[in-house]
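Sample log: non-specific serine/threonine protein kinase.
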Amino acid sequence: MHERGNVDQDDASPIPSGVSGLDYVLRGGYAKFRSHLVEGRPGSGKTTLGLQFLIHGAETGEKCLYITLSESKRELRSVADRHGFSLEGIEILELVPPELSLDPSQLQTLVHSSDLELGETVQSALAEIERIKPDRVVFDSLSEIRLLSQGSLRYRRQVLALKSFFLLNNVTVLLLDDLTAEHDDLNLHSISHGVIRMEQLSPIYGGERRRLRVIKMRGVQIRGGFHDFVIRPGGVSVFPRLVAAEHDVAEHGTVAVSDSSVDTLVGGGLERGTSTLLMGPSGVGKSTIACTYCYAALKRGEHVLVLLFDETKRIFLARASGLGMDLQPFANDGSLLLEQVDPAELSPGELSSRVQSAVEQSNARIVVIDSLTGYLNAMSEEQHLVLQMHEILTYLNQKGVVTILLLANHGLIGQMASPVDMTYLCDSVMLLRFFESGGRLRRAISVVKKRVGPHEDTIREFKISAAGLAVGEPLEEFRGILTGVPTYEGKQGDLLNDKAS
């Protein structure tokens, strides 16, 4: 605990915000004894952010005060209850009356802001601060002061006076503003020590997306850019934007093998710290190949993260079981982390956070994204997907994780086109195709790119059966594999036995 008047020791030092992820963005938290502006449209989460700031202070024994000019104490308590917050230890000063009080005597003790002159309103707040001598204050909101001021000059002077008062009293403050007057933004920005803007976006389809940006924090090299956040029961959680360069490089270890003949194609296995893209039409076997690598890793005792965009956990487990790979025990003991993702509800920042958590907390050594097509649907623009994926892949590569990405081509047969070009980001690319021979539909696989180590440049047939994955000998009489319409002109005897299918 600090001593009042002795501000040299920890003046402007970071103090925790009480919000998961926000301290990382702010490099420790809000600046102690300083005023911060938190701005955003109504419904963007300012009140919840402010409550979490005070609750954290109360838990550590600090005196906390919430000054509300726009919401009643009853409404605040309702918000807190829905989040499961306890407001014990937090003083609430309301300058508006409750909606309807059954106790007439209560009405005599409440003050309505519209009945007061600006000076009286501010004086009421200052008197309460002098009485309580709080360490943390949330002032909700400045828009009421703006309306009472009836002029930008008077408004700026009032906010400056408030800021000076808070500074003299060694109070750390969040000033909430609902952006009712956009043209006053820069005035407030220049006055405040730090500025955080919260936004709520409404996509054409799916749940709302929320993001925040730290516009300013004096003397701190903040983590810039937009950071996604959510408001769920329990409060605001921020997902800091993933910056791969800020993370240490981990040891890579031996190659990851699938214990199948696919390893021969890729030169013995997948190198640690590399990414592999499996491209092909729907149903050609991309998920099965990824599953084979996962199963082999799980049997070695490694942890695996699988992000499912296109199918449910039940279908994924059932399909693997049908191919002789019983993954259920690994899912039960937690070594297989299955995350079923709804693209309409998940923000890119939260996805990055889940991947990061699996790697750093659960020690996942293989990450599978099934598929990028589903992830693409979660993004509004392709450019964002590529940038986001570039950061995720770089991070995973530094951590020595084997990443397997699945990308479905448009269409099932005929000319193939990819919805997004990810080939230059990945270290290895496997191309999978259907082809027709002897009145049967068959599958072909080839490795067209591998940055690390040798790989085969042949085309092989592969077959999926109840016994798992089987890859045949190299087939030489192929043409048109890259067009998506391969034609096999070799001998039927060179193909895999049909009875095995």
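Observation: The chain has two domains: 7-241, 246-488.
Observation: Confidence is low (pLDDT under 50) at residues 1-5, 97-115.
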